[in-house]
Amino acid sequence: MDALGSRSGEVPWVGRPLALRQLEAAKASGLEVGESADVISLSPGGCATDALLKRFRNESDGLLGDVVGQIEGPMKRWTEPPFGPVVLIRRRGGGPWTPEREAAATVHRMEVIGSTFQIPIAQEANATLVNDPVRLIGVHHWSGVLWTNLLSLFDHLRVALLGSNGPSAAWNVFRGLLMARSTDPWQVAGALSRYGKGVKVHPTAVVEGCTLGDRTEVGPGAVLRGSVVGSDCRIEPQALVAFSVLADKVVVQRQGFVLFSVLDAESAVGGSMQLGVLGVKASVKRGAYLLDQSFSGPVRVRDRGLLVDVPLGTLGVGVGQGTVVGAGVQVAAGRTLPSDLRIFPSGHSLLRSIPDGVSGLCEVKDGRLLPAEPK
C-alpha cells in the first residue's frame, strides 16, 4: 500500500479503517485482544474475517506447538500474489515470530469452497467471484484493498439493512415490501436503505440498498446502488455509484461513473472508473478513464519485481494519495499511479490555434487545426 501513500491499517474496509475493522473481527470471533502466551495473528499485510479466525482457533486447538494456517480451495487465490503470501499464525509460549519458528511450525490447511456469483464487468463480459464468510486476503497490493471491500460488501449490507438474525431479516423484508408497495427487489432495497443524520436526497435521485453516512447529499438524477457511502459525501447530479465503498468527504461529480471501486477520504471522481482504488485526496477529472481490461490478455501487475496475472483477469487502476488524473487522460488497466502526481493530456492534442476560413473535416496536429488527411 505504500504505492498509494496509505498505511494498510488506515484504508477503508466497508466504512471503517481496516485496522479497526480487524480488531472488531477478532473480538467477534471470541479472541482475547492483548498480550498472551497463546497468540493468534496474521502475517503482515493480511486481514481475516471473524469466521475464519474462529475456525482457525477451533481447528488448531488440538495441534501442539506453533501452527501456520493456510487457505485451500477457490478462496486460495486471495492469499497469493499480488495479495500475499498471507497466512494465519498461532504462536504458543510467547516470544518473537522468526523464520526458524515458522519453518518448524505445524502447517494446517483449511479448505474454503464458498459460493460463486457473477459481477458484470462489461456489457459483454462477466466475472465469477467466490464469496464466503471465511476469508483471508492480503493488502500488500492496492488490489487487495479493492477485493477486501467487494467480497465483504454483500454480507455487510445484508446485516446493515436486514439484521443479523432470521427473525429480524424476515421482519425487515416484510417492512420493505410494505414501504415499497412492490415485490421488485431493488425497490424493496431502496425502501430499506439506511440514512444517517442530516442526509439530503433529491426526489429524483435513486438510492437502492445503500447506507449513507451523516450529512451526505445526493443530487438530482443521481443513482446509488448497493454501496456504502461515508459521512459528508456529495453525489452530484446524474452521477452513478454502484457496488462501491466511499469513505468520508468523497465527491462524485456531475455524471461521474464509479463501479465496483473503493474511494478513500476526500477523493473525487468526475470521470469513469471501475474496479479501481483512489487514495486520500486523489481525483479523476471529468473525461478521464481508468480502464480495467486489456485486449491482449489478462491484466497483469508488478508484484515484488515480477509480473503476475490478477485473479479474475480484470483490474482497474490504483491512484495514489493526492494524485490528479486530468481531463481526457486514459490510464491502462492494472496500473499504479504513485502519490502527488499531476497527469494531463499531451499538449499536441490541445487546440490552441484556429485559422480563418477553416471548414469541413479537420483534425488537431501540434495544437493547430488542420484539414484532415484522407484515410
Number of domains: 3
The CATH topology of the largest domain comes to: UDP N-Acetylglucosamine Acyltransferase, domain 1
Measured by DSSP, the beta-strand proportion falls in 25-35%
Find the count of extended strands (DSSP E, 2+ residues).
37
Question: How much helicity do the residues have?
Answer: 10-25%
Instruction: Give the N-terminus to C-terminus distance in angstroms.
Output: 46 Å
Strand line-up across the major sheet: 11-14-17-20-23-26-31-34
Counting H and I runs of at least 4 residues, what is the number of helices? 6
Helix and strand composition category: alpha/beta
| Low-pLDDT sequence parts | none
Q: Which CATH architecture of the largest domain is right?
A: 3 Solenoid
